[in-house]
Design a protein that fits this description.
Mean pLDDT: 97
Low-confidence stretches: none
CATH class: Alpha Beta
Strand order of the largest sheet: 3-4-5-6-7-8-9-10
Order of helices and strands: EEEHEHEHEHEHEHEHHEHHH
Structural class: alpha/beta
Length: about 280
């Protein structure tokens, strides 16, 4: 496994397993256990995913020591205040059945994120969290956040895939020592990603799938990535990306796919803000 070193010295696997949209219960538990057996140690969940308990059960069932894992969960909007953050964190900790969290993220850039960050900073200093960060912060919000807080976010987890490559955003993050982490690396199959001719042609050269090419591309850009699947064979396939390397020509071809726009949602759209704020998660 390749690791990145976060701005506080903590090492994080560059490839992990995401559980977004996997229902809580046996399906999620088995998917996480299959991922652990395949070699994944970074597991990414969130209060909003409502499957933290299943993730925790899989970790326990694996029999692998806690310190070998890097567990991420996230704070939802309705809990993003100073007081509520501490309550929400303890609930996530309880659902995961863990003593500490490796990475805790503000899931969306709404509500009192500054108050939430103060609470997260206290939890971090108390040793309950190994690293703290944010998710879905556009560059203007991220820089403002950095300049007005004591602790710089270790991570910004944002939509990043071949059709929305975030090269400029990554450079801004590098300037401040923030690690880019990709969600939606396969764009959930939008724009026919899995049959894209450019990606498929590159994959043929290495006897690799389009998914493996995308993951390798992100890893070579030093981007942490958390692909999701519930199929055991796909989970294993997605982990098998450290035995080949894309050339500069391959990377240039992939650059041409960039449309520089989200395929999912805009965080500056007021209807999106209303919808996300209306989704209550305890």
């Amino acid at each position: 496994m390749k690791y990145v070193t976060l701005n506080n010295g903590v090492k994080m696997p560059i490839l992990g397993f995401g559980v977004f949209q996997i229902p809580d219960g046996k399906e999620c538990e088995e998917a996480v256990l299959n991922a652990i057996n395949a070699g994944y140690r970074l597991i990414d969940t969130a209060a909003a995913y409502q499957n933290e308990e299943a993730v925790g059960r899989a970790i326990k069932r694996s029999g692998i020591p806690r310190e070998e894992f890097f567990i991420t969960t996230k704070l939802w909007i309705n809990s993003a205040t100073y007081e509520k953050t501490k309550i929400a964190f303890e609930k996530s900790l309880d659902r995961l059945d863990l003593d500490y969290i490796d990475l805790y993220l503000i899931h969306q850039p709404y509500n009192d994120v500054y108050g939430a960050w103060r609470a997260m900073t206290e939890l971090y200093k108390a040793g309950k969290i190994k690293a703290i960060g944010v998710s879905n912060f556009y560059s203007d919000r991220l820089v403002d956040f950095i300049l007005n807080n004591e602790i710089i976010p270790a991570i910004n987890q944002i939509e990043t895939h071949p059709f929305n490559q975030k090269a400029e955003e990554q450079e801004i993050m590098k300037e401040y020592g923030v690690q880019l982490e990709s969600w939606g690396p396969f764009a959930e199959g939008k724009n026919n990603l899995f049959t894209n001719e450019v990606l498929a042609e590159i994959g043929k050269k290495y006897n690799k799938s389009v998914a493996q090419v995308v993951l390798r591309w992100l890893i070579q850009r030093e981007i942490v990535v958390i692909p999701k699947s519930v199929k055991k064979e796909r989970i294993e396939e997605n982990f098998n990306v450290f035995d080949f390397e894309l050339t500069s020509k391959d990377i240039e071809k992939i650059k041409e796919l960039d449309k520089k726009e989200s395929l999912f949602l805009s965080h500056t759209d007021y209807e999106t803000v209303k919808r996300l704020n209306g989704f209550e998660v305890e």
